[in-house]
UniProtKB/TrEMBL annotation:
It comes from the Eukaryota. This is N-acetyltransferase domain-containing protein. InterPro entries: Acyl_CoA_acyltransferase (IPR016181).
Amino acid sequence: MSYNVDHPGLTSTIFISPADLQENSTLTTQIIALENTAFTRLHSAHASNWEAPTIRFPNPQKLFNTIGPSGVIALILDTSRTSAETPVPELVQVHDKYNKEFKKGKLVACALIVPWNGGWEKEGAATETGWEAKAVAVDEEERYLKKGIAIQLIADVKKYLIEKKKKVSGEGKGALTLWVLTGEELNGAYWRRRGFVEVRRKTWKKPTWDCLSEFDMVVLKRESDY
């Protein structure tokens, strides 16, 4: 794992099933808090066209519905945070089944990884396959923000999905498609810098996604051979 800053307490990316998340109310609460804060921060940076504050997940059920039965939650903890420094409710304990151990710390990054359904209107559902990275978020503390944590999270997601696909297909070679659906002015440039290419776009008017006037919703993808 490689970050742009020395973070000895950061875990490798941990993958949590929807069922395990629903049994961990503390983690659920912290994911919702992290996501809502991150979305408000993003909208506030473009306040002339987006409502802020904004609530991405108003309740746990909305989060569970977004993940669905086939999705997975990718997250990173900072295990160096102690209860003396971090309020106890913010510390979470998760079972890292891949490494077969429990880890405890502050949630600093997460993303929801779900089967790609073809887009906002499911316009590509008949022909497009792969996985979608949704609600990628990083804690706003200076020690975490803009330090490459989200980039590493997505890199680990790619490795995880490739391993998963290999097990299902029984083949050592293939291709993985990772999709992103976002507002062009919000995150379009960010994802292009990470190797994603535009597939299509459509202009939507308020109040879609809490927009105040109109915006271009873009579908981007990145294909990786293995």
